[in-house]
C-alpha cells in the first residue's frame, strides 16, 4: 500500500474517513503518520485512537515561517510518504515543503474552486449568494487553494442554510470525494500537466 501522511489542524472528520478506508487492504493506501500545526486538536486524538503516530509542528515554536516550513517538511519526511493529504490543514506551505512533496500533495477545500479559496470557503460562498457550491480536491502549490483541480463535487445551497448547516452537508460529500480520490491516486498515480490533472489509467 502507498504511504499516506495526513496534515490536519482541527476536527479531523476527513482524517477519520481516510482511517476507516485504509482498513481495507484493497484501498491501496495506508495512513502512516498524522502531522498537525496545532496541539490538542481532535484530529490528533483520532489518529492516536487508530494507532497512527503523530507529530505537532506549531508555527509559534519557530523563529519564522521558513524555519517552520522546513521543520514541517522534516516531520512529514520522517514517515517517508508516497502521498501527502491536507485534510483541514489551515496553513500555507512554503518552498522547503514543496521542493520535497510538490506534485504528490493534495488538499481538500469546501468550495468549488477557483471560487471561494481561503480559510472561509463556506462563509464566503453563502455571503456571495451562490446557489451551488461544493468541495474540491486540488494539487498543493504555493498559492491559496490555487493548485490544479483533481476532483470536485457540487452541493446545492438551501434557502435556510447557515454556515454550519451548509458546511455539514459539504463535509458529508467531501469525505467521500477525498477517500475516493486519494484511493484512486494511490492505486493509479497522479499526472499533473499544467492545469490538467489525471488520476490513474495511463
Ligand atoms: C474541511 O471542510 C476542509 O475542506 C476545510 O476544513 C474542514 C476540515 O474539517 N479546509 C479548508 O477550509 C482549507 N482551506 P475536518 O477537520 O473535520 O476534516
Automatic annotation (TrEMBL):
Catalytic residues, chain numbering: 109 (proton donor)
Site location (Raises pKa of active site His): 145
The protein's annotated pathway: Purine metabolism; IMP biosynthesis via de novo pathway; N(2)-formyl-N(1)-(5-phospho-D-ribosyl)glycinamide from N(1)-(5-phospho-D-ribosyl)glycinamide (10-formyl THF route): step 1/1
List of residues binding (6R)-10-formyltetrahydrofolate: 65, 90-93, 107
Name of the protein: Phosphoribosylglycinamide formyltransferase
Formyl transferase N-terminal domain span: 3-182
Record-level GO BP terms: 'de novo' IMP biosynthetic process
Family of this protein: Belongs to the GART family.
InterPro entries: Formyl_transf_N, Formyl_transf_N_sf, GART
GO MF annotation list: phosphoribosylglycinamide formyltransferase activity
A Gene Ontology term for the protein's cellular component: cytosol
Amino acid at each position: 500500500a502507498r504511504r499516506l501522511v495526513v496534515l490536519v489542524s482541527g476536527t479531523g472528520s476527513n482524517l477519520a474517513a481516510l482511517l476507516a478506508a485504509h482498513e481495507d487492504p484493497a484501498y491501496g493506501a495506508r495512513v502512516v503518520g498524522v502531522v498537525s500545526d496545532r496541539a490538542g486538536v481532535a484530529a490528533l486524538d483520532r489518529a492516536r485512537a487508530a494507532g497512527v503516530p503523530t507529530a505537532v509542528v506549531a508555527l509559534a515554536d519557530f523563529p519564522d515561517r521558513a524555519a517552520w516550513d522546513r521543520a514541517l517538511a522534516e516531520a512529514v519526511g520522517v514517515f517517508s510518504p508516497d502521498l501527502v493529504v491536507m485534510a483541514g490543514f489551515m496553513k500555507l506551505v512554503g518552498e522547503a515543503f514543496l521542493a520535497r512533496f510538490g506534485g504528490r500533495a493534495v488538499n481538500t477545500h469546501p468550495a468549488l474552486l477557483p471560487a471561494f479559496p481561503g480559510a472561509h470557503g463556506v462563509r464566503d460562498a453563502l455571503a456571495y449568494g451562490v446557489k451551488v457550491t461544493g468541495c474540491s480536491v486540488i494539487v498543493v502549490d504555493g498559492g491559496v487553494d490555487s493548485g490544479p483541480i483533481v476532483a470536485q463535487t457540487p452541493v446545492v445551497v438551501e434557502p435556510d442554510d447557515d454556515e454550519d448547516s451548509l458546511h455539514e452537508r459539504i463535509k458529508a460529500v467531501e469525505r467521500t470525494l477525498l477517500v475516493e480520490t486519494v484511493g484512486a491516486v494511490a492505486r493509479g498515480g497522479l499526472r499533473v500537466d499544467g492545469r490538467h490533472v489525471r488520476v490513474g489509467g495511463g
